[in-house]
Design brief:
Helices cover about 45% and strands about 25% of the residues. Among the domains are: about 80 residues, Arc Repressor Mutant, subunit A; about 70 residues, SH3 type barrels (Roll); about 80 residues, Alpha-Beta Plaits (2-Layer Sandwich). The protein contains 12 helices and 11 strands. Keywords: DNA-binding, Transcription, Transcription regulation.
Length: about 325
């Protein structure tokens, strides 16, 4: 993260322990930056770069260790100070160029170019956004606009819209936007809870204040997205990913079906997009598949083409339909 927040933490710890002045804080920050730039520094090299004695370097290294940075020291040829990997990830000290590069990479990932990492990229970007200096925002926006992807996976959305929604979720403030409904765009006023990434689209899980219930909204259909200043107290919410997946794969369709498939859940999940069906394990080597469509024949065809033995659980009329289609296929094969 940019150095402001780290400077505050180091300053509080340094002054609280030994009453050192601002110069000590700045020096410790500089030391941290040096250790993050190169794998190993000798004591004399650090002393020369910082303009202090090797003894002061040792004291500053102890200050970093007290803050949770695992600074290792080794003796002999090739030895020196090295910033190691700790149990928890400590704050990173980024200069302006590094902060810009990181933010642009996260914007691209959140926008869909890195679909598998999109939700993690958005969470990281929301954290970076909190401490990113305002002078860098224009450069981040300009650079991210210049990056495109030919990956045809997820439907692209404006990263700024994702950021606005992520900030609203983080800060627990109401959000407003236009959303198509019944052939017209209507204004929606919601308490945003989570931004959810599927294999194809971005969704917002939110409590719709005008309809008094939980809803999910496609981010690419939103217009005029704003985060309001009115804060709300979080409600007891459903599991965001499960709620959105069931809505997308099931509830939006007039016809729904359940199947018991004789294959492991992980095997079937690898064959079926998450937006097309909900797959749940049902014992060893079996799983339940729930899906929806405008026609039950369409769902049946896709389960058949998975290539596994299966049984129809619901609805009952689909079992009879299987017999009709089997007779038709046998007749076609005998011609």
């Amino acid at each position: 993260m940019p150095s402001g927040q780290i400077r505050s933490a180091i300053s509080d710890r340094v002054s609280g322990v030994d009453g050192e002045d601002r110069g000590t804080t700045e020096r410790v920050l500089t030391l941290l930056g040096l250790l993050q730039q190169r794998q190993v520094w000798t004591g004399p090299e650090l002393a020369d770069r910082l303009g202090v004695t090797p003894r002061t370097v040792r004291r500053d290294v102890e200050r970093l260790r007290a803050l949770g940075y695992p600074v290792h020291a080794s003796q002999g040829v090739g030895g020196g100070y090295q910033l190691g990997a700790g149990q928890d990830l400590p704050p990173l000290l980024l200069d302006d160029e590094e902060a810009i590069a990181t933010a642009v990479s996260l914007l691209v990932g959140a926008g869909g170019a890195v679909a598998s990492a999109g939700d993690a990229a958005l969470r990281a970007l929301a954290k970076l956004d909190r401490v990113l200096p305002s002078r860098l925002r224009h450069e981040v926006r300009t650079l991210s606009d210049a990056v495109e992807s030919f990956d045809g996976g997820r439907v692209p959305v404006d990263p700024e819209v994702l950021m606005t929604l992520a900030r609203a979720c983080r800060d627990q403030v109401e959000a407003g936007f236009g959303y198509p409904s019944g052939g017209e765009v209507r204004e929606r006023r919601v308490e945003p809870y989570r931004v959810v990434a599927s294999d194809r689209r971005w969704y917002l899980l939110a409590y719709d204040l005008d309809r008094d219930g939980w809803r999910n909204f496609r981010v690419d259909r939103m217009t005029g997205v704003i985060a309001r200043t009115w804060r709300f107290s979080p409600r007891e919410a459903p599991d965001a990913a499960a709620f959105v997946q069931e809505n997308v794969a099931l509830r939006v369709y007039p016809q729904q079906a359940r199947f018991l498939v004789h294959a492991a859940a992980d095997t079937v999940r690898a064959q079926v997009p998450a937006s097309a069906a909900v797959v749940r394990a049902r014992g060893k080597g079996r799983c339940e598949v729930r899906s929806g469509a405008a026609s039950l024949d369409y769902v049946l065809m896709h389960v058949l083409l998975l290539g596994h033995e299966f049984e129809v659980l619901d609805p009952p009329e689909l079992r009879a339909r299987c017999g009709e289609l089997a007779d038709r296929l046998r007749a076609a094969g005998s011609v």
